[in-house]
Amino acid sequence: MAVLPVRFTKTKRDKLAQVLWVLNWISIVTGIILFSLGIFLKVEINKRQDLMVERNLQSVPNMLIAVGLIACAINFLGGKICYDCVDTNKFLRWKLVMLPYIICTFFFTLSVLVGALMCYSMLGQLEESLTLGLRDAMRYYKDTDTPGRCFLKRTVDLLQIQFQCCGNKGYRDWFHIQWVSNRYLDMSQREVVDRLRSNVEGKYLMDGVPFSCCNVNSPRPCIQYQITNNSAHFNYDYQTEELNLWMRGCRQALLDYYTNIMHSIGLTVLIIWLFELSVLTGVRYLQTSLENVLRQGDPECESDGWLLENSFVETARTNFNIIKHLGKFNQINTASNGDPNIDRPSTAHYGPDNVPPKPSPTSS
Amino acid sequence: MAVLKVTFTKKNRDKLAQVLWVLNWVSVVTGVTLFSLGLFLKVEIEKRRELMSKEVDSVPNMLICVGLTACTINFLGGKICYDCVDTTKFLRWKLLMLPYIICTFFFTFCILVGALMCYSMRNDLEESLFLGLRDAMRYYKDTDTPGRCYIKRTMDMLQMQFQCCGNGGYRDWFHTQWISNRFLDMTNSEVVERLRSNVEGKYLINGVPFSCCGLHSPRPCIQHQITNNSAHYNYDYHKEELNLNRRGCRQALLEHYTQIMQSIGLIVLIIWLFEVSVLTGVRYLQTAMENVLRCGDPDSESDGWLLENSIADTARYNFNIIKNLGKCYQVDDDPNIDVPSTSQQAQENVPIKQIPVPR
């Protein structure tokens, strides 16, 4: 009782082969798309590497790149096979390769699915990586004279301007960090010394933010120092003032940005997975129907194509038995060689009637 | 003595017609390219319309018109060349072809003019930007005036995006009041002093908006009391180059647009050369087909040329035509001019005897 059998006439088989040839070439294009999506994601992550703590985020783009390349190769081979399947003679060339090819492609489509699911699961790792990365970037903002960290100020400023965000969760994060380097603090001033002394760790903290936090939509010139001090500025109340600085935190801004990208990529990969699966199904039908043609002997006759020759359960049992016997095969050889007492059927020839002799009565 | 004569066999003529058909369709694509270049330029200028005092739209409009006309002309040319393979079909187009070629010739001049305009637009643009930026800086503080409330945002985004400050430099902000009176504490004596010390009552400071801050500066941005060294620790404004953006926004925008214009101008020149070569091919095809018709045998060889006589002869001939066109009108008006008689006896070329007048 075959699984989903379909009857194919000669013309239908030919048409199926042609359609599959075209679809395989389209699949090569989708393989290239997968490859370029992987490259795009890699570039996007590398662009903001300074703001992320390394958390094995490169696995997803690498997976996509590898899967894209393999998809191109597999579908190129599939295209050649389907092109040859129109002619029964040429099919004989590929007869032995086709079943392994189909099994390989089946496992390959599983990896495409895994790739799509990884896109969605990456976001959790990304959030953690961004939180720690941004916290460190803000901490090293002032270290423009330390090699290896001298560009962090510029990176953070560009980020805040480009994504219209301020700080990690909000602008108040800047109040807990010393972002003005000691090189630019006048230690002879009493105010500065007082502030430094009033802090436990000796950090110069103030209620001010860098200029990149300033909101361009504000109707008044940007207030970036003494933000929480209403009396320092005319006609200003920091609790009602919403347009002065960017209100969003940069972690949320970056997360939203990457979530958009990952969702789009994940959706595209899922669609490509469905497409590959349908092409694989077509190739399976083509393979089984051509094998049945060869079994019947007449290239022009109708034949059945199916997904599995027997039901799922029987096929699973058959394959399981094959694997068990593969194991047993080794066992039998070693057991009979070692133990002479196992009851083995005799291979002697007892004359023309092949009747084994009566056992001779032993003297009691 | 024809100009650049080439002899065409039947096969050559057919091949020429087919090649020209393909080239005309390629020209339709280049016409679409011209159109989209004009559209792109228009959009780029519209994006920063607020910063320009007057519309600099002659060049994009020209490119858009030229692009559309090129599409139409080359579409017609494609149809004509497609029919030229067959001599009978060519008869349909025979009378139209010469006017078509003359029109296309003048049209290619338009393309050349369009390309040259791209390069000449710079001066117009510079003046427009100078006045526009000056006004934008003046209205920077008027975020409560309808019609001007977005100028602050436009100016800030411009200075951050192009990494520039002010019109010619950051000092332009020192001569403009960019802080609105709404945010000035009039009870503060310092503020009142400053307002009074200025002739026009403007609140001028040696400070700049935050968008002038340089991204590459190693220290936090100093945007107020820029020229006062003692107000900041370890600071000398003469030596400090990374603190603010050094470039003026006029220069930055001009460079941006000049780059765009130069690329567009180059593409238009290449398209012009292509169109001229297609036109030359069509001219050869037209003269070759006409000579075939003159010979009578559709399969014979024929000559194709650019001009039938030399350039001087052709120019003189056309000039005479135009002169005679003018003379035609003059003759009708004046009755005293000696007009040769057109009566029957005149055809025998015998002069009429004069009627003797009685003394």
From TrEMBL, chain A:
The chain crosses the membrane at residues 20-40, 60-78, 98-120. Keywords: Membrane, Transmembrane, Transmembrane helix. Pfam families: Tetraspanin (PF00335). The keyword Transit peptide does not apply. Gene3D superfamilies: Tetraspanin. Residues 354-364 have a biased composition (Pro residues). One of its GO terms (biological process) is visual perception. Residues 334-364 are annotated as: Disordered. It is found in: Membrane. It is a multi-pass membrane protein. GO terms for cellular component: plasma membrane. It comes from the Eukaryota. This is Photoreceptor outer segment membrane glycoprotein 2-like. It comes from Culter alburnus.
From TrEMBL, chain B:
One of its GO terms (cellular component) is plasma membrane. The keyword Lyase does not apply. GO terms for biological process: visual perception. The keyword Ligase does not apply. Its main location: membrane. The chain crosses the membrane at residues 20-41, 61-77, 97-119, 264-285. It is found in: Membrane. Keywords: Membrane, Receptor, Transmembrane, Transmembrane helix. It is a multi-pass membrane protein. Pfam families: Tetraspanin. Belongs to the PRPH2/ROM1 family. This is Photoreceptor outer segment membrane glycoprotein 2. It comes from Anabarilius grahami (Kanglang fish). The lineage of its organism: Eukaryota, Metazoa, Chordata, Craniata, Vertebrata.
